[in-house]
Amino acid sequence: MDKYEYEKDSKKEYGEETYDSAKYDEHEYVINLLSSSQEADQDLRDNAREATLFVNKRDGAWEPYWYNNAKEAKSPRYSFDMVNPIIDQVCSEIEQASFDISVSPAGGNSTKDISNTYSGIVRNIEAMSDASEVYNHAARMMVTSGFSAWRVVHKYVSQDSFDQDLFIEPIGNALDRVWFDPAAEKQDKSDSRYCFVLHAIGKEEYDRRFPEGSGESVDEGRDGEAYYDKAEVVVIGELLYCEEEERELAMMSNGQVHEVNDDFKKIADELESIGVTEVRRRKRVKKSVCSRLFDASDWLEEKKETVFNMIPVVPIFANYSIFENKTIFWGIVEKLMDSQRVLNYSVSREVAETSLAPRSKYWMTMSQAAGHEASLETLNTNHDPVQFFNVDPEFPQVPQQQGGAQINPALRTMSEAMRGMITYASGMFSSNMGDNPQNQSGVAINALQNKGDNSTVKYFKALEYGIRATGRILVSAIPEIYDSARTVRLLKEDNTYDVADINQKVIDQQTGDVVTVNDLSVGNYDVQVKAGASFKNRQQETIETIIEIAKVDPTILQIAGDVLLDNVATASAQQISDRKRAQMIAAGLIPQDQMTEEELMAAQQQPTDQQQDPNMVLAQAEQVKAQAEMMRAQIEQAKLQNEQMKLQLEAQKLQTQMQGDQAENQIDFFNAETKRMDTQIKAQQAGATIDKTSAQAVGEQ
To answer: Which of 322, 421, 460, 628 suits 118 as a labelling partner, its CA being 20 to 30 A distant?
Structure first.
């Protein structure tokens, strides 16, 4: 039995209260459900908030006791931040990477063309939403605290349009505002029955939108406030929850799937009249996500049905695990806080002891200083080459310098130990931070960088997991949004775009049936995420790779010239690439399965007796000549080897008469081979001369 069905039937206990999923329309029940979700995650959220304040708040890097203690208040309290650079290093690697969502067929009459349409639509949604910024901001929060989130929404494209679209939006301060079903165990929380998203809106905006509202904020599940000078807001809640409804599906002969309802019954006769018949039926539970806003006192609006069949809120967790039926997570800061705080304390004590320690001074008697007071007063600032003093019979010694700062050496030892602990706890070594004080080889540096990457790859994987969940939400919702005939923009990986007509009704000229072209509701599709270097970096790698291969095989430039130019990011490179590609198509160097529809059509329309380009003929003749010269060199080498073998056989013949007959036969054989190779060389040279003469004649014409 499905986990959700089991919990729906038997109820699930959280703490002391029992919650029933059928009571989502009761305000008191929902308030208690929010409180229960917050209590289940309170301890980890508090740790995550402390880690966030540790790197963001001015005094966050100090323990409150030492920072606020009245006795310690007179001592210096400095922060020597070694944590933020580590966060920046991990996050900059993420920001420079590329996460590409690709959609592939997964059965049910799915096709590669429609999967490419899905991929193009998803990339276009990401572009319209500035999704890369949403991902990067959430990734930084996840690396810092261990948790962050974003959401997928649907709304009208513009105020003057009836077309709707999907958008990826950030959630500010997800630590306080996003609360999932505590029973959900999947890392993307796709098994969550409900989710709360809290919104802080201005008091005036609240009064305008909800004039009947009480203005009472819901609890954010946070103990205390770190900041006090803030805008006046009202915090309202949004409940997103799944409803289930049993429905009957009918598969038609054209591959379409319809829900058996009144609308289907109305068009059943029309479908049958054009030859579209019902193949089979089955029952299935339909999930749909509903949304409703509320404040601390009551509901603010009626329930709204969404286009989603799964909760459209995507969490990302660092170091995710389930332990004792509880979701566990933590970021990179939590394990560094103690070392950083001890470092701040020890270095601040060093500063205090240094500043309060007496300076080194010269000690002398009053008689020794008499008459030289002026020069002694400027002892630290004058440039006099000598300093005079009087000889004192009662104290014959020369004035001596004594005193000076005596710093506790244990503080310096402690500081250095904490720096080492921060390095090892974070897994970020000098080479990862761009610091290589020793003269090491490139191999050694790469080994150290890889060692550090082993500690940061988990953050890449967490973000990749969340983006894959986003792709699944989009693919499941796209057929609901793009449900009518329309032209959509398909964004490619290189930021160029195509347009496609979807859900277009056309008549099959052979059968007379009405078919839907690019029907996004047909078939099942899977989502994968490819994480790697940014497209710009991959362009540079492609150029370098092709050039390196061309050094070994120069002919690669003849068959990959257009690919090379496509990856050159200059203003006119595309024009040159188009010309090169046209030249390659005319020369037959591009296979038909790699041509676009326009190129293939143009190639098929070209006359078969079209005169060949004289320059191309000359180039081909030169290539044939070069191949003949290479063959000639190979034959000459073989001939030399035959001569050497012949000499060896002659020597063997002289040494023993018994083997003479056999050696003579082999000598005759190699003589015959030598004559045959001489004839072949002459034929190759004659053929190359004829080809070159023909090419020159064509060129003169």
So the answer is: 460
